[in-house]
Amino acid sequence: MKFFIDTANLDQIKEAQSLGILDGVTTNPSLMAKEGITGQDNILQHYVDICNIVDGDVSAEVISTDFEGMVREGEALAALHDQIVIKLPMIKDGVKACKYFSSKGIKTNVTLVFSAGQALLAAKAGATYVSPFIGRLDDISTDGLHLISEIRHIYDNYGFETEILAASVRHTMHVIDCAKIGADVMTGPLSSIVGLLKHPLTDSGLAQFLADYQKGN
Ligand code: G3P
Q: What is the value of pTM for the model shown?
């Protein structure tokens, strides 16, 4: 299972990268705005800065909603760095743009996916990644993890190579449940990654080992 961090915060990306278990980064316009990154030149430079920190794929989202605009923007993003993955919204022109980029061998991430049918379309369009938003489904009393199971089942039925990127992950149990179901990737905040480290028996066990070592030395 790949671990992506879902942030545009460079310090958090560096911290996750320093653990040695980070496989990539996802961003979106809201995460960029949260870090105060505004203006096209600054946003493009920020993507390059992120690529220079991590080794894996970095999703960069288009803001156009028409095919021509998505192609223009996506090509400019792809030219920034070979780690860039073009993030496209699950709308009609997004599907068309996904097919366009996938047939050119450019990686894509179809985002804002909330149903199995949308995920099926993304796979048919050759998406590298499909991003079902599990936290936002949970927010409206709909089981986000069930969607991951449905997509896994459908993709396995037909051998689709599109990777299921569980997005809008909010906490450690989302990560663990996605791993049980067989999501290929999860993207979440730093807390959902480092939270996996924590267990009180690890802390008390280590304290005991160190105390016993001190007694004998
Ligand atoms: O990866 C999608 C993500 O950025 C959305 O997360 O927490 O805003 O639903 P959230």
A: 0.96
Residue 181 is encoded by which pair of tokens?
A: 């179901």
Tokens encoding 206: 């280590």
Ligand 1 near 28 CB (within 6 A): yes
Residue with tokens 């190579």: 161
Is the CB of residue 181 less than 8 Å from the CB of residue 145?
yes
Which residue in the list 2, 87, 92, 124 is annotated as catalytic?
A: 87
Question: Residue with the nearest Cα to atom 7 of ligand 1?
Answer: 168
Q: Is 87 a catalytic residue?
A: yes
Q: Give residue-wise pLDDT tens across range 167-180.
A: 999 999 999 999 99
- CB-ligand 1 contact for 136 (6 Å cutoff): yes
Q: Taking 90 as the threshold, does the pLDDT of residue 216 lie above it?
A: no
**Ligand 1 center from residue 188 Cα (angstroms):** 8
The atom of ligand 1 lying closest to the CA of 168 is 6
Find where tokens 């545009």 sit.
8
Burial class (CB in 10 A: 0-12, 13-18, 19+), 202: exposed
User: How far, in Å, from the CA of 114 to the mean position of ligand 1?
Assistant: 12
Strands of 73-213, DSSP E:
84-89, 108-113, 129-132, 163-166, 185-188
Query: What sign has the CA pseudo-torsion 66, 49, 15, 197?
Result: positive
